[in-house]
Write a structure and sequence with these properties.
This protein is α/β, with parallel strands linked by helices. It contains 16 helices and 16 strands. Helix content is 43%, strand content 14%. The strands form three sheets. The chain has a seven-stranded mixed sheet with strand order 1-3-2-4-5-6-7. Strands 10-13-12-11-14-15-16 form a seven-stranded mixed sheet, sandwiched between helices. The longest helix is centred in the last third of the chain and has 22 residues. The mean pLDDT is 94. Homodimer.
Length: 482
């Protein structure tokens, strides 16, 4: 029998934000915390998703929960278990909500039975823990089917969809039809942007963009020479003879050393420590279009053979993400395309699977890679919200992103990054990357403005206030229905 498991999160005080905020902003944050405590007095705020590591939701939850617990709110995190067949179905739904056919497998009665059976097993354990009046925030298609059971037990159920499509294409309609029975029981749905809200949820939806935690290991300050040392010890760049220790600071304040290496597919040696790097960090997912990034970079080098730059495509070790059955096939496809390239290009492209045994070590490696990058790209074909883009912008990196989904909200073209209107337009993508490599003054200006844009719009302070507003809306709807 499948059972969900709990991920324990240590409380983190909101005091760390005070130096980053104005007096008025700090007072507003304290007021939000007090309001959250009042509205949840005697109840628990549950978050339920399908993986504890890998992907944006697993990145977002532990830090937001830590701050909520630090504010005095009883917040807990449960992860549902599933079978390979279940995760193939939910990955198919993931693609469909983006408007993509994915593997084109059916979403019929057999898939419905499998999906319901897995969630029925998980629900039995959740019913032991969740009490009437608790708030349960379910995340993404993997958990939507839990809503009727939890709502019948008296929980106030909210469903958050981190993905979506701006138009109701055929695949999108198919996905919503599959999810509709579960979603009928949710009181509110949360989306990253208004364009993602489907008609069946139009009367009970709110928009809350995701955020990053500026104090997380992935976003903590890091000196350039330390970033270079971490990448050197990981194997992503050549290790400088005088490199300092590859040390980062864990969440609990204890220094730690990066000791694990990345699994890297390359021809020849690692890039020199000072070599310009074009970097994309994402899950190994076809919608992130790593093959398109590789082909676009190949076009760039064919057109500008004298340009100094290497490409690093990095993602998590494919064995570490339980709910993504396509990861291994995706990296195999990228590797096959890499092998087709001429020798001079293969020497400049590095495919890196980053270690995930220690999640904070992984975060330090990603931090170092983003800070070391000359240009960070996210050439997604579809994207709900690109956390890695916001992370890079916080680090004042110039970014090139596709003008799709939430990326359009994160990056203002020519203001704090460059957007490629058509994600499949390889010449346009190559031209944007070349521009940032060849115009360092422009790159620095965009990076500085990107940092400020994130500080104002995409940090945990704004996100926490949005969650308090969500609780207010839940209470208001309950009062209207009484």
């Amino acid at each position: 029998m499948l059972k969900p498991f709990e991920v324990h999160v240590q409380a983190r005080s909101l005091e760390c934000f005070q130096p980053e905020l104005t007096g008025a902003e700090w007072a507003a944050l304290q007021a939000s915390a007090a309001q959250a405590r009042d509205r949840l007095a005697g109840h628990t705020f549950w978050n339920v998703n399908s993986t504890a590591r890998g992907g944006g939701v697993a990145e977002l939850l532990p830090r937001m929960l830590a701050y909520a617990r630090g504010a005095g709110v009883d917040t807990r995190w449960m992860v549902v278990e599933g079978t390979p067949a279940f995760f193939r179905i939910t990955k198919r739904l993931h693609h469909a909500l983006h408007g993509s056919r994915g593997d084109d497998s059916p979403l019929g009665p057999a898939e419905r039975a499998c999906y319901d059976e897995v969630l029925r097993d998980n629900a039995e354990e959740l019913l032991v823990l969740v009490r009437p009046g608790d708030v349960v925030l379910l995340h993404d298609p993997q958990t939507a089917g839990l809503a009727p059971t939890l709502a019948a037990a008296g929980a106030r159920v909210v469903w958050r969809c981190h993905i979506g499509c701006d138009t109701l294409e055929e695949e999108v309609v198919r996905a919503w039809a599959f999810l509709a029975p579960g979603l009928a029981a949710v009181r509110l749905a949360v989306f990253s942007r208004a364009a993602y809200v489907p008609p069946l949820l139009a009367d009970r939806s709110v928009v809350i963009p995701p955020s990053i935690d500026i104090f997380a290991v992935k976003n903590q300050p890091m000196a350039p020479q330390v970033a270079s040392a971490i990448l050197g010890h990981t194997g992503l760049v050549a290790l400088a003879p005088d490199a300092p220790d590859p040390v980062f600071i864990r969440t609990d304040g204890v220094p730690a050393r990066v000791s694990r290496g990345a699994d890297i597919i390359r021809l020849g040696s690692a890039p020199a420590p000072g070599a310009p790097l074009v970097v994309q960090v994402s899950r190994w997912d076809p919608l992130k279009d790593p093959v398109g990034v590789l082909r676009g970079f190949a076009l760039l080098l064919r057109e500008s053979p004298g340009l100094r730059a290497d490409l690093v495509l990095a993602g998590p070790s494919v064995t570490s993400v339980a709910d993504d059955p396509e990861a291994a096939a995706t990296i195999e496809n990228v590797t096959a395309v890499w092998r087709e390239q001429p020798r001079f290009l293969r020497q400049r492209v590095h495919l890196a699977s980053l270690p995930m045994v220690d999640l904070e070590e992984n975060a330090a490696i990603v931090n170092a890679l983003q800070r070391h990058a000359t240009v960070v790209v996210q050439k997604s074909l579809r994207e709900g919200f690109g956390l890695t883009v916001t992370e890079a912008m916080w680090k004042s990196r110039p970014v090139v992103a596709s003008a799709v989904g939430g990326l359009q909200d994160q990056v203002r073209n020519e203001v704090d990054g460059l957007l490629v209107r058509d994600p499949e337009d390889l010449p346009a993508f190559a031209a944007c990357v070349r521009r940032l490599l060849e115009e360092p003054v422009l790159a620095a200006r965009l990076g500085a403005q990107a940092h400020e844009h994130v500080r104002v719009r995409f940090t945990a302070v704004r996100h926490l206030s949005d969650l308090v507003a969500l609780l207010e809306e839940l209470d208001a709807r309950a009062e209207r229905s009484d």
